[in-house]
Write a structure and sequence with these properties.
- Pfam families: HWE_HK, PAS_4.
- By secondary structure, this protein is of the alpha+beta class.
- The chain is built from 18 helices and 22 strands.
- The chain is 38% helix and 27% strand.
- The strands form five sheets. It has a five-stranded antiparallel beta sheet with strand order 2-1-5-4-3, sandwiched between helices.
- It starts with 16 loop residues before the first helix and ends with a helix.
């Protein structure tokens, strides 16, 4: 009997399944010799073997398995032994789950299982995957159900994508909630426009200040149409700048929806997405009517400028400076200098001056404003100072431009914060990778050395709690270090009263992050063992953790001793448990000179000794 020739790539686990099925000794199974197979079985096997997705045929009273190449990925190390064997022998540990599904399918029901987790072994490595399984009955020539076809689909990417999506949605909801509260609290009129300048959103605070009773009545309206005179021109220029990816600002006059005319200071900028592209525009308008129309308010504004920490200055059209606030003079080192002898060009080195003279100032004259990051120079030290430079025109009563004004912000702290954030993100990724590696190792060893899943779950949970305590301390120290005493108290406290049943003694020691996690795991294992079998298993025993430092500098040695007394008589174990192995593996890198465990009748004692620099800062 011939099932045709195989095509495509070979599977990971060996020869093509067509050849294996053809060569298998079926006469020794309940299926019988291939030459005697009914046409229904031959057809089902032929379809399955040449299918592009994982399939397994279960046939006969013994529920013999026949499967294709793709299904070997699910079987892992069970292949090729699974071919021709009953399904119950291939999946003994899952038979209580599979058996009812197979019975339902063999009774004529189509059974589907979605998003089933399967741990697959590929190239010797266990990988978590998810699959959809569909069990369909297969009829023989008489119409009787003789077997079933299990069609499997790898949905790992879908499951992961859905999880990522749900997490992203949750993060988005949190950000939107925070952003919404900020927008609702702001007294500025915050608007979002499309690239055509049509109104798409206005904050609650903006609707109040603009006296908007029904935003739906103005949504989609061209934003420049809300401005008159020069304001309309400036609004259109700001839109053009935003479409080009630039931020700008202007001052203009517009009325509220109730017809009340007001003066506004408006900042317009593109809204960038994560890829650096923009498809919307942000407009923030601040009501400056009273500042414009009231001499008292203008005086207050002057005082505000004088007390501002921003760099505020004004210059004539020829560039000569005629005003600088105290903050501006302090930022660039001109506290005791007559700044009126200076011009705009004196504040910049050639590269920055090129931007200011040929880009910024022409933009002010043409579009009404310019803003961007520029390096100022310090007149005393020559230091280059990163500044958010915003320039706008100064006009007289008739609206004629008579000079330049700037409100410039020192952004050294922001730049440093951005650099620190990049550094911390890198450090966090590194630390997180280390923690995940430790967790993976603990989980694998715990599961491997536990007699059942309930015991493994409890042991793994306790070890992860101990590891979590260490990471809490490290997080409080920005993952740079952990105090040994604090670490010991937090790890040992659940097992007895500190200072009563558990004595901790030693000088101040600041551990490295990796050593902190190793100590936490080791102390947890020691305390757990003491609580089960040792000094902490009764009401009178005492456990003592003591450490000391000998020598100084690179020759300093750290000695640590754990000792127990007052507990039941100690009997040396016949073989090392996982706890002992975990202690040795955790601390091996930090105590290379001496590591000895003494099972004394009066109580366990563990002595450790190594270079202080290997474990501590």
């Amino acid at each position: 009997m011939d099932f045709g020739k195989d095509e495509g790539r070979p599977p990971e686990h060996g020869p093509m399944m067509t050849e294996r099925v053809r060569a298998h000794d079926w006469a020794a199974s309940s299926v019988g010799a291939m030459a005697d197979w009914p046409q229904s079985l031959c057809t089902a096997v032929d379809i399955m073997l040449h299918a592009g997705q994982a399939m397994c045929l279960i046939w006969g009273a013994d529920r013999i398995q026949i499967y294709n190449d793709e299904y070997t990925r699910i079987l892992g190390d069970r292949h090729p032994a699974a071919l021709g064997r009953p399904a119950s022998e291939t999946w003994p540990e899952r038979w209580d789950v599979l058996h009812p599904l197979i019975d339902r399918a063999l009774s004529g029901e189509r059974v589907a299982v979605r998003d089933q987790p399967v741990t697959m072994t590929r190239h010797g490595v266990d990988e978590q995957s998810w699959w959809d399984f569909a069990y369909s009955p297969v009829h023989d020539e008489s119409g009787r159900i003789a077997g079933l076809l299990n069609i499997c689909s790898d949905v790992t990417e879908r499951v992961r994508a859905l999880r990522d999506r749900d997490m992203a949605f949750e993060n988005l909801r949190e950000r939107e909630s925070f952003t919404g509260s900020v927008l609702a609290s702001s007294t500025d009129c915050i608007k979002v426009l499309d690239l055509e300048g049509r109104l798409a959103f206005m904050s609650d605070g903006g609707q109040r200040v603009m006296e908007v009773s029904d935003f739906n009545a103005i949504v989609g309206c061209p934003w420049p149409d809300f401005w008159t005179g020069n304001g309309n021109r400036d609004a259109k220029a700001a839109l053009e700048a935003a479409r080009a990816g630039q931020s700008s600002s202007f001052i203009g006059r517009a009325s509220t929806m109730k017809g009340n005319w007001k003066w506004w200071h408006v900042a317009v900028s593109p809204i960038f997405d994560a890829d650096g592209r923009w498809d919307r525009i942000l407009s923030v308008s601040r009501d400056i009517t009273e500042l414009r129309e009231s001499e008292e308010e203008r005086d207050r504004f002057v005082r505000l400028v004088e007390n501002s920490t921003d760099f505020v200055a004004m210059a004539h059209l020829d560039g000569r400076i005629f005003y600088m606030n105290d903050a501006a003079r302090g930022i660039v080192g001109l506290e005791d200098v007559d700044y009126t002898t200076l011009s705009i060009a004196d504040f910049f080195l050639p590269d920055a001056l090129e931007i200011v003279m040929h880009e910024a100032l022409p933009a002010v004259a043409e579009r009404g404003s310019w803003s961007g990051d520029v390096l100022f120079r310090h007149f005393g030290t020559g230091e280059l100072i990163p500044m958010l430079y915003s320039v706008f025109p100064i006009t007289d009563a008739s609206g004629e431009m008579v000079g330049y004004g700037t409100v410039t912000r020192d952004i050294r702290e922001r730049k440093q914060a951005e650099e620190d954030m990049r550094y911390l993100n890198g450090e966090l990724a590194h630390r997180l990778k280390n923690v995940l590696t430790v967790i993976q190792s603990i989980a694998q060893q715990t599961l491997r050395n536990s007699p059942d899943t309930q015991t493994a779950g409890k042991a793994l949970s306790a070890r992860l709690v101990a590891l979590g305590g260490a990471t809490d301390i490290l997080t409080g120290k920005s993952w740079r270090s952990a105090d040994l005493r604090e670490l010991a108290e937090r790890t040992l406290a659940p097992h007895g009263g500190i200072g009563e049943r558990i004595i901790i003694d030693g000088p101040p020691i600041v551990l490295q992050p990796e050593a902190s996690m190793a100590f936490a795991l080791a102390l947890h294992e020691l305390a757990t063992n003491a609580a089960k079998y040792g000094a902490l298993s009764n009401h009178t025993g005492i456990a003592t953790l003591h450490w000391s430092v000998e020598g100084v500098g690179g020759d300093a040695r750290l000695s640590v001793q754990w000792s127990e007394r007052g507990g039941p008589p100690v009997i040396p174990p016949r073989c090392k448990g996982f706890g002992s192995v975990l202690i040795e593996r955790s601390l091996r890198s930090y105590f290379r000179e001496l590591s000895a465990t003494d099972y004394r009748p009066e109580g366990l004692m563990l002595k450790l000794r190594g270079r202080l620099a290997d474990a501590a800062l």
